[in-house]
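Limitations
The structure tokens in this dataset are predictions for the assembled complex, not deposited experimental models. Users should treat interface geometry with appropriate caution, especially where small molecules or nucleic acid strands are included. An illustrative entry is reproduced here so readers can see what is and is not provided.
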Amino acid sequence: MIMERKRMDCPALPPGWKKEEVIRKSGLSAGKSDVYYYSPTGKKFRSKPQLSRYLGNTVDLGCFDFRTGKMMPSKLQKNKQRLRNENFSLFKLFWEKRLKGLRSSDVTEEVLRSMELPKGLQSVGPATTDETLLSAIASALHMSSNPITGQTSAAAEKNPAVWLNTSQPLCKAFVVTDEDIREQELKVHQARKSLEEALMADGLARAAESTRDTDI
Amino acid sequence: MIMERKRMDCPALPPGWKKEEVIRKSGLSAGKSDVYYYSPTGKKFRSKPQLSRYLGNTVDLGCFDFRTGKMMPSKLQKNKQRLRNENFSLFKLFWEKRLKGLRSSDVTEEVLRSMELPKGLQSVGPATTDETLLSAIASALHMSSNPITGQTSAAAEKNPAVWLNTSQPLCKAFVVTDEDIREQELKVHQARKSLEEALMADGLARAAESTRDTDI
DNA sequence: CGGAGTGATTTA
DNA sequence: TAAATCACTCCG
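Predicted assembly:
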């Protein structure tokens, strides 16, 4: 008599959490298994996202392998990398959109309002802090002194957050006159200068310099 | 209003087949797209190999480009090359397996039974003939006088037909004594000699020489 | 348990 | 490196 559907203790989770593995008996996926977790109160969890939402910051599931129920340190590196990339892309989308809409007359006001980061930026991953994002901002301000061609891939339109050419701002490829160039450069310069001032005034630039993620 | 996820007719396939392109919306691969095909009965196909297996010899997908859904005559040359290589690898898989199981006492009998090629060898690609395979056999008998290391890739286990190191026989990397080597060499020599005799006796060697694929 | 959507792996 | 295939997750 085989004992299936047994709820096992799961040392990687807080005391009282149980893990269960159920083998599929028929169909195309016969032989595959589903893994479930049960909270101390008996609530059932069917996926890692569901588990993460429930546990929140009380447990870091970054390197938790849902299927085995064990911590896999190897996963940590990949997750960190992925989160950083997502943050960075989101930041650029956000920032370039801001710059694009600026006119020189309202740069300062705009920059100040920019300090409220959009929801998407704030909610990416449990380990994400405003500090990390601002660090990215500070970095980005100093890294591009190259020719600007704009985004050439059509994919950028559909999914700008990921498909941006990371060395180019968010705008389509364009043809411009010399006057256009001067005008645009002025706007960008003013916008950047104002942002830097705003950052300094707020003490945020310092925070950005001393972030824990030093390997960006 | 953008129309996504629309199943389009695909003129390159038989009537009733549809093609669909779906853009990935999130995650690391956001912005990339997946192409699917649907048979007249609604079955979904997610890759060219899967499609090929289903259509078998009823449609020649040699120059079919899965992503665009169109026939690309330029692909033909490459495919011919690839098919030949696959045939060749399949042959070696087959033959080395035969040799591996031989004992010197039953070499001749084994060789004669080997003339029935296994199904996998006979059904690869619409243009494949026994003649082509026998040509490959004849070639292979005379081309390898190199050090033998065996197959080192773990992938060879899963997909031997394609992933064989084409300069090495089908066996795992091994450690052997001098005696092992002499014993094995004897077996291989005898097996090859017997095969050559069998080929000659059956008139197959001639067929192998005059195959249409002269550019192997 | 199915299957669309996405990650992971392998290949050219 | 990017593209193609394959495997898996996750939620209905």
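Some entries come with short summary sentences. For this one: Residues 97-177, 201-216 of chain B have pLDDT under 50 and may be disordered.
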